[in-house]
């Protein structure tokens, strides 16, 4: 069972529906006991970094997530949820969860490249991982973001993409995984990635 953490931010229904479509069991919950007993967690997120971290820091959720991360439970953060896994973001003042050293930086705008970065983008493999297994060389994903992560240790990078600058499109350190794009909106490529996570 994949437990999708409901802390008031994210496309929870569409993520759960995509898991159901690939035959994986998933539930959406804000209950700390259910989150605390989960064997696999997905941390979604849309919107502003500080607002998301403030919600996580409220009511004991941060403590439960830190414990699950320390126990080795697989955790996948998507979109803003991936940025929350890092040390912080230029967008806000609050520290992130700090599980993967790195920081989210604002994407540079130009006459040719609009920010936010919205739409499909090719990715390239930085290293192999169970999360990205069996993705084809032409894999592309759907992005919606204005800030992008740069991990401090290149060994934590799984996929890289470019929009004005090169950035980390997917990351991993141990049992912690992140995807900047929206796998639930990325058709067969997103289905493959979520299927991989379900099997980890």
Automatic annotation (TrEMBL):
Gene3D superfamilies registered for this protein in UniProt: 3.40.50.880
Q: Cross-referenced Pfam families, in alphabetical order? A: GATase
Q: List the GO molecular function terms.
A: glutaminase activity; imidazoleglycerol-phosphate synthase activity; lyase activity
What is said about its interaction partners and assembly?
Answer: Heterodimer of HisH and HisF.
Q: Which reaction does it catalyse?
A: L-glutamine + H2O = L-glutamate + NH4(+); 5-[(5-phospho-1-deoxy-D-ribulos-1-ylimino)methylamino]-1-(5-phospho-beta-D-ribosyl)imidazole-4-carboxamide + L-glutamine = D-erythro-1-(imidazol-4-yl)glycerol 3-phosphate + 5-amino-1-(5-phospho-beta-D-ribosyl)imidazole-4-carboxamide + L-glutamate + H(+)
Free-text function comment from the UniProt entry: IGPS catalyzes the conversion of PRFAR and glutamine to IGP, AICAR and glutamate. The HisH subunit catalyzes the hydrolysis of glutamine to glutamate and ammonia as part of the synthesis of IGP and AICAR. The resulting ammonia molecule is channeled to the active site of HisF.
Q: Which residues form the Glutamine amidotransferase domain?
A: 4-197
Does this UniProt record's set of keywords contain Transferase?
no
> Would you tell me the Gene Ontology cellular component terms?
cytoplasm
Q: Where in the cell is it found?
A: Cytoplasm
Annotated GO biological process: L-histidine biosynthetic process
**Which residue spans traverse the membrane?**
none
Its organism's taxonomic lineage begins at: Bacteria, Pseudomonadati, Pseudomonadota, Alphaproteobacteria, Sphingomonadales
What's the source species for this entry?
Sphingomonas naasensis
EC number(s): the record gives 4.3.2.10, 3.5.1.2
Protein name, as recorded: Imidazole glycerol phosphate synthase subunit HisH
The active site annotation covers 79, 182, 184
| Presence of the UniProt keyword Lyase in the record | yes
